[in-house]
Design goal:
- The protein is α+β, with helices and mostly antiparallel strands.
- The chain has two domains: 108 residues, no CATH class; 137 residues, no CATH class.
- The chain is built from five helices and ten strands.
- The strands form three sheets. A four-stranded antiparallel sheet has the order 1-4-3-2, with helices on one face.
- A hairpin with a 3-residue loop joins strand 2 and strand 3.
- Helix 1 packs across helix 3.
């Protein structure tokens, strides 16, 4: 499943990686990298992965970089120093020529080649040292409502073709939806040929809480869902300056899921892996 990106980044897939201090070799580090403070006070943020192993980020927080590099939901990062979220940075980096060979599609939580390089940059320039813990937090279970299943299978049940990127839902609106893709905004989800586990991951990003697929429904589905939301509230999934569609007459997201899909979000407690920041420093600009 591939998600297009135009603005603020928020990576959201369950992670299964170790956060350890390790020496970096040229094989898993950018060849050149620049990190500079951004004092523009602009609300817009952007990250781009470009051909040739190039990575650029404009007006991003360290928290945004961490969620992307380590394949984390925002709620999986325990609170660190205030500047981790408030201070903004511009990053420009380039890997060695030929250092990014083609790789097969990855499972959720497995970082892409560029994300591995970004991890090395964060650990080197921001001196990040962290570890993960499993905590008992509030979660949502996505379940089927008794006698009210409305969700329909997609006509195309073929898994999407392998791609050289990790499965990370990110906010996007505009253009056609390819099979296995999601267009996600603060008040809507439109998708073709996705699993309900993938729907749950997208809902996790919108709701800021882990959503677990408990439906036991198999196959791939086409989903179109709109709800009303307070678009002014601070959320990681979109750039507030972008003209995302709004649905003031739509129901709440919880009611929309029940009425349109025949599914329900049930609040519960469950194990959630979180990142604990042990050490982090502001980088010296270069």
């Amino acid at each position: 499943m591939r998600f297009k990106v135009i603005s603020s980044f928020a990576a959201i897939v369950f992670f299964a990686i170790s956060f350890v201090s390790r020496p970096q070799s040229r094989k898993n580090a950018f060849e050149v990298a620049s990190v500079k403070p951004n004092g523009s006070r602009d609300l817009r943020a952007r990250m781009d992965i470009q051909p040739g192993g190039r990575f650029t980020a404009t007006n991003v927080s360290l928290r945004m970089l961490i969620t992307n590099a380590y394949q984390l939901f925002n709620y999986q990062i325990a609170k660190g120093p205030d500047w981790v979220e408030k201070d903004r940075w511009d990053v420009a980096a380039k890997g060695e020529e030929g250092s990014r060979p083609a790789t097969p599609a990855r499972s959720p939580g497995v970082p892409s080649d560029t994300q591995v390089l970004l991890q090395a940059l964060i650990e080197d320039r921001y001196k990040l040292k962290a570890h993960k813990e499993t905590r008992n937090l509030r979660v949502y279970n996505l379940v089927v409502m008794k006698g009210r299943v409305k969700i329909k299978l997609s006509d195309n049940q073929t898994p999407p073709a392998p791609r050289d990127d990790a499965e990370i839902p990110r906010p996007y609106w505009g253009g056609a939806i390819e099979h296995g893709n999601v267009m996600l905004g603060p008040s809507n989800i439109h998708a073709t040929g996705i699993t309900l586990a993938e729907l749950a991951r997208s809902l996790s990003l919108v709701l800021g809480r882990q959503v677990v697929d408990r439906t036991m429904l198999k196959g791939r589905y086409d989903i179109s869902l709109e709800w009303t939301s307070d678009i002014s509230q601070p959320m990681d999934i979109y750039d507030p300056t972008m003209p995302f569609p709004r649905y003031p007459n739509a129901p709440s997201i919880y009611t929309a899921i029940e009425e349109r899909l025949g599914l329900r979000l049930v609040s519960s407690n469950g194990p959630v892996e979180v990142l604990i920041i042990d050490n982090v420093q502001k980088p010296t600009a270069n």
